[in-house]
Amino acid sequence: MSDVKRVLIVGCGIGGATAAYTLARIGLSVHCVDIAPKSSAAGTGICLLHNTLRALRAVELDGHCLESGLLFERFRQFDAAGNQTAVNPTPPGIGIRRPDLAHTLESAAIAAGATIEFGVTVTELEERANHVEVTFSNGSRGEYDIVVAADGTYSKTRRKVFGPDFEPEFVGQSGWRFSAPRQPDHDGFFLFRNNKGVAVGAIPTAQDTCYLFFLEGSQQHLHMPDDQLDTLLRERLAEYSAPLVRAALDQVTGPERVLFRPFDVRLMPGPWWHRGRVVLLGDAAHAPTPQLTSGGGLAIEDAVVLAECLSAPGTAMDALEAYSRRRIPRVKRVWEASRQLSQWERDDPLGNAEKSAALLLDTYRFLGEPM
């Protein structure tokens, strides 16, 4: 076991909550804070690929996710009318509703002994010889052996520690997402392409639910009026007559049913994802484009690997360096593949459709390699 005993985790999203669980599980004193006033019940769904299932299995959480989500093993492609054009087997994955996953991870962390506080964040960090002194937004203070920055793409902790040179950048795409009832024949990751190659994706999240997404390219950040999101989504998907897509759109009865977000990305360079005793995890280290549905899964892997490194004999620095050595090459390949898929979609989605599908399947296979 390393000499780390007390850990602060900043951010209680997928990566932060998983880390709170994995680190408490190995006997560390874990304090997790999040600026949000409470655990989020928002969001549509998320896809946990086979590598994520393996990571969850390693820490005995896969069963809980299987109970809440839906297992699938197929990637089907269709035209805009819903005629199937290709089908490929994929390694097993789970679609799951984001609130269900958040509940599973947070409950497991608390049961393992972690303390989670919402409505609180870090205002000051001061590293000393063998600990980090932290001041919180509620005026309290604490001392920790390491601090895990899991506060997302726009991580304020990363900026405090690494400086302003690593802000996320707009990748040229935005995403529309909405949830709907699942159709009985929706048995995998479905992709519907129009005659220009532009795709609508659909992933089941439970026996009775699924979520759909549509990606839109632009040179600059798009800003959509919140009270018109449903109308604007319908306009964009008007030419998709596939029964699954139309049935899902019938459920979009108001703008509150639609989520829209521009994609800002960031991959922190090596050789280390830590400075001193502050280490980056999840989107704070590697916010990807969504093409490989791997952002949350890679964050879960981060948390499992960090716990393994802290379980090994040595110092905090030994553990954090081992974590970087294991994570950076693996995450870099997946992050770069995801960004390449985004670029091909923006350049020529129809002309690049075949090689995009090949890269997607090849990266899925790579994710099966040891994390």
TrEMBL record:
Q: Which InterPro entries match?
A: FAD-bd (IPR002938), FAD-dep_Monooxygenase_BioMet (IPR050493), FAD/NAD-bd_sf (IPR036188)
Task: Give the record's keywords alphabetically.
Answer: Monooxygenase, Oxidoreductase
Recorded GO molecular functions are:
FAD binding; monooxygenase activity
SUPFAM superfamilies, sorted: FAD/NAD(P)-binding domain
List, for all copies, the residue spans of the domain called FAD-binding: 6-337
Protein's recorded name? Monooxygenase FAD-binding protein
Q: Per its UniProt entry, which superkingdom is the organism in?
A: Bacteria
Check the record and name the PANTHER family matching this protein: MONOOXYGENASE, PUTATIVE (AFU_ORTHOLOGUE AFUA_6G14510)-RELATED
